[in-house]
Amino acid sequence: MIVGLLAGVPVLLLMLLRINATLVFLSLCLGDVLVKFLSADAIDMADSFSAHGSSAGQAAVKVALLLAPVVITMIFMIKSVRKNRQLLNLLPSLGVGLLLLLLIVPLLTPGLSHNIVASPLWSQVLKAQDLIVGISALLCLFFLLLQRPKNQEEGKKRR
What CA–CA distance (Å, rounded) separates 94 from 14? Predict the structure, then answer.
């Protein structure tokens, strides 16, 4: 059930708020880069404000680094998808939900991540992780290219 919520809530938010899922996917990738390169320094800084570092505090810092670009992008991109193109946004939204699931579970506290990893659905997600990332990236690239103006005159008319 937790696996479905972690993957499904982003999809619902993106679809209901008509947020461009392709840009959110890219923001999620940026968040993963931030976790990989900045988490140690961010944890050290957070530990300087508290008496001792806990695994929950470290997990919170990593999750915050992962989700900060996503949340900022979502706020600025509300209603960025036209209603007639909203159905096209579903495929990248599914990619965002599944990628978020793959990226956030290893960052959670050991107790919570153990509950998720122990579920039979998680083993299926792990088996398909290469397909999830690859197909989602290709879909997002394709939809990003669809959003560009067709020619220079069309781009000038929109401004």
Answer: 9
Query: Distance between CA 87 and CA 102 in Å, rounded?
Result: 24
Average the pLDDT over 98-104 and give the result.
Answer: 95
Alpha carbons 100 and 120: distance in angstroms, whole number: 18
Read off the pTM.
0.87
Check if the beta carbon of residue 11 is closer than 8 Å to that of residue 61. Answer: no
107, 95 Cβ separation under 8 angstroms:
no
> For residues 103, 133, 136 and 111, what is the CA-based torsion angle, rounded to 10 degrees?
-30
Query: Angle at the Cα of 124 (from 101 to 138), degrees rounded to 5?
Result: 60
Q: Residue 32: phi, psi to the nearest 5?
A: -65, -40
Q: Which amino acid is it at 94?
A: L
**How many residues would you count in the chain?**
159
